[in-house]
Amino acid sequence: MTAHSHRDAKDRPRVAVTGIGLVTSLGQGQADNWAALTAGRSGIHAIRRFPTDTLRTRIAGTVDFLDTEPLVAPLLSERFAAEAAEEAVAQAGIGRRGDFPGALFIAVPPVEMEWPQRQALAEASGQNGEVSYAGLQAAAATRRFDPWHDLFIFGTVAERIAERFGTKGSPISLSTACSSGATAIQLGVEAIRRGETQAALCIGTDGSVNPESLIRFSLLSALSTQNDPPEGASKPFSKNRDGFVMGEGAAALVLEDAEAATARGATILGYVLGCGEKGDGFHRTRSSPDGAPIVAAIRASLEDAGLTPEDVDTVNAHGTSTPENDKMEALGLAAVLGERAGRVPVTSNKSMIGHTLTAAGAIEAAFSLLTIRHGRIPPTINHAVPDPAIPLDIVGQARDVPVSRVLSNSFGFGGQNTCLILGAEPA
Question: Which of 302, 364, 402, 414 is most open to solvent, judged by the fewest CB atoms within 10 Å of its CB?
Fold first, then answer.
């Protein structure tokens, strides 16, 4: 690779991926996840960590092979993030242990106090109804809640991960709904392109499968209620889809300035060629009916990469299995890909791991890079009843084909749309 090739057509440093880490309900690490994903094995099952008798949705893609006590979203998110980052940093072989030579960008779920902690705080305040400021002061004076203090401050997870891996500068916590993981990668890419850092640790993590989250999403009619069999509930782009299934986990990518990575002899696993985003203020949960923001985000990612729609080999879809999202994504792909829309293979990892929310964009970017490296497109399971209104080439069984460039879509509630172009070689 020549010195000139380390910069793209816009004279920006190329961004290489040198480490990948994964934790999902399919397993821990790249090997276990990839084997399960390409075999079409589902990680969605009946929830066992808390009672679900009174809930409409009783299934999720939970990570049950790691310790999940106490059941608090920030702690679970931190645990998953740390496991994924350990694998990514080790594979990259970058820096000494605990001395990562770059910035941290981490997508974490919105931090709120969950019901058990709220109840305990209310009881300790001596007020069973509304908790007053004086009551909270009285509860705090007991010092009983000191261990919880850091669990409910947005940014705590980032600070702990930064301390553990020795990242440089102020860690960046972000939350852009279901596109958060992709946004974390985008911020890392942009920082390297601006020359602010030569390396970035980008993480998306989420441990939000708890009773309150299930109830909230259920009230929005967003979750599937097809509890039996659990592995058949998430069916992206199928006519009989009825909602998404919650999942959890994390992915971490080590990004580097390609020139610096090459100089230190790193193995380059792929490149982040382009990033595109478009805000949509149409509704807090619904997509704009004309699909314009989705189309704009996809086109922006291609323009940023210096590519055209003809350069896309496959699409790692957002594909949540909700009636509206799948329809809008299909409209957006048709608008951008044109006559190729029915011939470009499309897959949704959420059919097997569920919707990992804040982590989804990072996990799916990691799977996209593995697709490129292995030349194998994972299937979308449960696509037994195709939706005639979605004329896409949905990959029903793992497909062995050369893949050079993947479009990975992430669309979130509130109109957060982020798309990434991952590639085997520089554009």
Answer: 402
Candidate list 6, 178, 202, 383, residue with the active-site label: 178
pLDDT tens-digit map of 112-125: 555 555 556 566 65
Only one residue has tokens 């929830």, namely 47
pLDDT tens, position by position, 233-250? 999 999 999 999 999 999
Give the residue with greater pLDDT, 387 vs 289: 387
C-alpha 220/C-alpha 284 separation (Å) is 11
Reduced to 3 states (helix: H, G, I; strand: E, B; else coil), residue 426 is coil
Of 6, 202, 275, 355, the active-site residue reads 355
Q: State CA 48 to chain mean position distance.
A: 23
Q: Cis peptide leading into 229, omega within 30 of 0?
A: yes
Residue 39: DSSP 8-state: T
Considering only residues 18 and 213, tell me which one the structure prediction assigns the higher pLDDT.
18
Burial of 215 (0-12, 13-18, 19+ CB in 10 A): middle
CA 241/CA 326 separation, integer angstroms:
9
DSSP state of 177: T
- Whether 318 is catalytic is yes
Mean of all residue pLDDT scores within the chain: 90
From 6, 202, 275, 318, active-site residue: 318
| DSSP output for 116-170 | HHHHHHHHHHT-SSSPPHHHHHHHHHTTTTGGGGGGGSTTHHHHHHHHHHT--S-
* Beta partners for residue 315, in sequence order: 346, 407
Alpha-carbon distance of 152 to 144, in angstroms, equals 15
Place of tokens 């084997």: 35
Q: Which amino acid is at 394?
A: I
DSSP tag of 284: S
The alpha carbon of residue 2 and the mean position of all alpha carbons in its chain are separated, in whole angstroms, by: 34
Domains for the chain: give ranges and CATH numbers: 15-111+153-423 (3.40.47.10), 115-152 (no CATH)
Question: Residue 363 — φ and ψ, nearest 5°?
Answer: -60, -45
Tell me if residue 45 is catalytic.
Answer: no
User: Greatest CA separation found in the chain?
Assistant: 70
**Whole-structure pTM value:** 0.91
